[in-house]
Amino acid sequence: MDEPIKMVDLRGQYLKIKEEIDAAMQQVIDSTSFIGGEAVRRFAGSLSAYLGGADVVTCANGTDALQVALMGLGLERGDEVVVPAFTYVASAEVIALLGLRPVLVDVDPHTFNTTAALVERALSPRTRAVVVVHLFGQSADMEPLLRLASEHGLAVVEDNAQSLGGSYRFADGRVASTGTMGTVGCTSFFPSKNLGCYGDGGAMTTHDPLLAARLKMIANHGQREKYRHEVVGCNSRLDALQAAVLDVKLRHLDEYCAARREAARRYNERLLAVDPSAAHFTLPAEAGYARHVYHQYTITVGGGRRDALREYLASRGIPSMVYYPLPLHMQPAFAPICRVAGPLAESERLAGSVLSLPMHTELTESQQDRVAEAIADFYKHNP
Ligand SMILES: *Cc1c(COP(=O)(O)O)cnc(C)c1O
User: Fold this and answer.
1) Exposed site from 34, 160, 200, 249, fewest CB < 10 Å?
2) What is the pLDDT of residues 105-114, one digit of tens each?
């Protein structure tokens, strides 16, 4: 019997590091420091070192990271924040929750990320910040975005939930980790993310120590000193068991990213053989400036056949997912409250054509062969 193919394989990944993980969790339980304490401090230090020394503020999840980051920027009600229309809802949700105005921009169809040119067209006198999403594991083209932001005095919030471990190369050759280039980077440790814990978790990263202190205060009920509340904050903390898991898994993150990149390379090779002229589908593009860490391996399917292909794969026992089926300006909650900047044609087209294939650190060559064979068979039967 062939191993069933899964979208993600958290169990297989756990079994390889079971002893390290179990010991780290047992240590937290023995210490009974379940909130805060040594495990959380240690992980924050490890992540900071991994990211080249940026300050790290841990929190409860990636959505909170985005919310606390925006709370820390001192924006005012009605201020505009630019965000791509083709992203996970959290990137825009927090903008609206804080009484700010989401301004939706389109994305580049090859990288799925927004660009400086698209953001520039969306600017108004009320624009204060831009949420740049590094979607599916690939950095947005940051250098022009950072230049534009600095020209217009905008804060840059990087939504790095899908791309921790990835990097960006500037024109002068300098390489920076995603999440460390903007005003503040936000990430998620949701179990299926590239660095996932065994529950919820998140973090913010910044090179501005004053901002880091402010974010820490906001996430801790707006207090620096116990029971003295300087601002209205919230309660968002990473728990110690998750921090212990993350500190172990962070040591394997480079290996995990390499495994994802290798799996992507194998998909590219096999799928190129299925459809050499890209008549039926397009493979994910890797930009020259990015080290893509393939949170998702996402093809775009032409001819309006995405859903048919997805159903065919399912009939062969192969899971796939649509991230994301509806751009934000078409969501009932967001349509009435967003300003739409320019046509969102690429976001709409991608929503109807993207298909993410199984991608995780345990994916085997033979499993990928089966995925490629099934795709080939679909087009053989439906030329
Ligand atoms: C997962 C994700 C988030 C939210 O993270 P949670 O930990 O689930 O709150 C935000 N943005 C993007 C792009 C994501 O993929």
Assistant:
1) 34
2) 999 999 999 9
Question: Ligand 1 centroid to 216 CA: how many Å?
Answer: 20
Class of 10-250 in CATH = alpha beta
**Interval 208-226: pLDDT, tens:** 999 999 999 999 999 999 9
Ligand 1: which residues within 6 Å by Cβ?
A: 61-63, 87-88, 90-91, 133, 159, 161-162, 188, 190, 200, 202
User: Is residue 2's pLDDT more than 80?
Assistant: no
Calculate how far, in angstroms, residue 160's C-alpha sits from the geometric centre of ligand 1: 8
Closest by CA position to 85, among listed 117, 111, 107, 116: 107
Output the DSSP codes for 105-160.
E---TTTSS--HHHHHHH--TTEEEEEEE-GGG----HHHHHHHHHHHT-EEEEE-
- Domain 253-381: what homologous superfamily? Aspartate Aminotransferase, domain 1 (3.90.1150.10)
- Predicted confidence at residue 382, as pLDDT, reads 87
